[in-house]
Amino acid sequence: MNLLQETCASLMAKENPPHMGLLLQFLRVLVDELRQAVWVVDEHGHTLFANAELTRLLDCPMDKLNCQDLLEWVEPQDKALLQAALATPTPQTQATGSPETCLQFRLLAKEGQSRRAQLRIQTLSDASGEATCRVLFLSDEAARPEACRAWGADSEHRPQPDPLLPNSQPTFLKSDSLLENEDALRQSEFIFRSQFEHGNIGMALTSPDKGWMRANAKLCQMLGYEEAELQATTWDALTHPDDLEIDLGQFRRMLAGEISGYELDKRFIRKDGSVLHTHLTVSSYRRVPGPYEYVIASLQDITDVKRAEAELRLAACVFANSQEGILVIDAQQRIVDLNPACLALCSDDSGGISNYACVFSDISQARAHARELEHIARYDLLTGVPNRRLFSERLIEALSEARAKQQRLALCYIDLDGFKPINDQYGHQVGDQVLAAVAQRLQAHTRRQASSRSHARRVIDTVARLGGDEFVLLCLLHNAQDCQSMAQRLLEVIAQPLYIQSLDLSLQVSASIGVTLYPEDDADADSMLRHADQAMYRAKEAGKGRVAVFDVHGDQRMRSHREQQAGVEQALANGELRVFYQPKVDMRLGHVVGVEALLRWQDPQQGLRLPASFMPAILNSDVDLQVGRWVIQQCLEQMALWKEQGWNLPVSINISAFHLQSPGFVSDLVQTLKRYPQVPTGRIVLEIVETTAVADIEHTIAVLNQCRSLGLRFALDDFGTGYSSLSLLQRLPVQEIKIDQSFVVEMLEDPNDLAIVKGIIALAQAFQCAVVAEGVSSAAHGQRLLSLGCDCAQGFTVAQAMPADQVLAWCRAWQHPSSWATYLH
């Protein structure tokens, strides 16, 4: 293209007829060599010029083509379309500055054969701006698949997405089936661009960091800014300070994937400083997988509505506080309303009404306006069904009635599946038609169901739109078994095809429905709505077109779990957690070889609590990590204190699987060790259970090796209860194996437990690991373990877990049982 421009410029610079003739000859040769058909016609469609590719496309010689008009080569049903395109003024393209129009039509080639063609029309004008001719560029659609495949292989020059079109992606045509969708794609792109550029509501594309990417003319007019001025700022800078927090909160939820979009009433600050009241609708777009690329926002100016509401409130205040008595009477001379001043004027000394003083005013327009505002405040403007506010009122009323009459209610939370792609592809106008049609279907279905229950009040059967593509339905049930069939009928009603007349096509959506039932879910109205919403998300997780019923008991268990977790976290913050220590002894040598740190909770209400009563609630949570770090810090602090007192006791610390596999475990441990340099790392034993090692064996081995490089030792706790295997022992860098107390306690009576104990001792000896028996509850147990070759033990026969300040006194006073003396060295 640069070479062409340079050549033409060089020839035109000569400014004499021979060179101009050379230029025309050069351009004629160039056009004839193009692989695209070029057809130049006047405003009536008469042929002015045609290149060689066009004669090939139509299979018609040049002399015959010059004698015919464009419309003679067009299918009869497409002639009107082409005539309109030739007669309609067209917008200028950015690339050429010339007006351009694109469309598809069918050509009549030789012997009446029809072929589909893609047409671009460009208008050429003279110096005065008067249109002189039309240049038509035709592409044979039948020849495009091979060209598209060749083009698709050129990875360096594939087109990039158009940020104005939500569905715009680089397109790689691989089969004829994709070509059949081009009409719909072009139509959806045209619809979206038309709505964006010429719509009567403000629309914008914004970035995830709140910057204005594009703004249509209507939005610029509403805010008083040029588009370039908006692009130099962010939307939060123009938001009214009182509305910013709620908008940012919803925006963050959307980017986090919690919601697909949101609606709210919001104020902006115009360029002139005035306040603009809007109803804002926001949705997001991203490629899957990937981050959000931009946000689509539409703004409807509701300043007049807000002003009318304020005027209505002011009028009501004036009516109530006026010193003049005002009486309102309808056409049937019935008293509709009277203000306090009127009531005082008409009352006698006893407070009864003695006479009337009437002031007549025509307030029909005011009342009609008030009814209109009331409808706007309580009904959804798009679908005409109740909005969230009215539905909440009806839900409260329905629950009260159901409790009084012992009725059963179903609250259904409905979210459409596949609605966002429809909105993105065909535009908000088509999306609005889909929402309105779904609302009408739900209402019709609900009325049919209610007609069979003449005793049921209308408030019981209510359909409402909460916003976006979310609806709720409240209905009466005879029994809980009707719930699934009722919800299934709703799915069938929604899934019926929707005919969009403006596009002459049928669309189909499905839905995910969450249901909560009264009286099983005997909560307040807001809680029931939240429960139905939670059930809907479970239905979505299971796939499209599903129904899920809220699990009341499961929710109670979850709440109890969260409360317990919060209780442990608060106990840690309040300093109620304690670290106790249980001694371990060498039965053969007769002295203390260390202690194991065990967690306790000094609960102000329940007293001293063991880990089994609260640790399960915090497993695999942030509280688990907090408690684990706290225990390590407490143990190192206590070891440093004992060393100052002349005792260098090894301490075993239990590490949970979640804590060990957390990303910062080793680095946190290193930082804690640095604070206690006087503590020998070789005296620290970290105890892990078998299930921790098996969960992610490679990661566990890597962490253990890093800790060993710091001098720490490891013990495999509760051995025999999980996935005990020779390969596990062979790979894990542990120095100690602990026999679980469940085998030790019954070993004297149960030969199977005894056999397991013998096997574990033999394995430990084979792998040169120290072995410790837990749960040694009698001297006889110790004596039997000594006979089997197990020297170390802990349990009640040795000592129970005790506070840190009692450990040293116990160590000084401890004496081994006399029955172990036979084995002493």
How would you summarize what this structure contains?
This protein is α+β, with helices and mostly antiparallel strands and 825 residues long. It folds into 4 domains: 1-90 and 98-140, Beta-Lactamase (2-Layer Sandwich), CATH 3.30.450; 193-344, 2-Layer Sandwich (Beta-Lactamase); 378-550, Alpha-Beta Plaits (2-Layer Sandwich); 562-805, Alpha-Beta Barrel (TIM Barrel), CATH 3.20.20. α16 (419-426) crosses α17 (428-451) and α22 packs parallel to α24 (665-674).
Which terms would index this structure?
single chain; extended; 43% helix; Alpha-Beta Plaits; 5-stranded antiparallel β-sheet; Beta-Lactamase; 825 residues; 8-stranded mixed β-barrel; alpha+beta; 4 domains
Explained architecture:
The protein is α+β, with helices and mostly antiparallel strands and 825 residues long. The chain has four domains: 1-90 and 98-140, PAS domain (Beta-Lactamase, 2-Layer Sandwich); 193-344, PAS domain (Beta-Lactamase); 378-550, Alpha-Beta Plaits (2-Layer Sandwich), CATH 3.30.70; 562-805, EAL domain (TIM Barrel). The protein contains 31 helices and 29 strands. Helix 16 packs across helix 17 (428-451) and helix 22 (622-644) runs parallel beside helix 24. Residues 1-19, 92-98, 145-180 and 454-459 have low confidence and may be disordered.
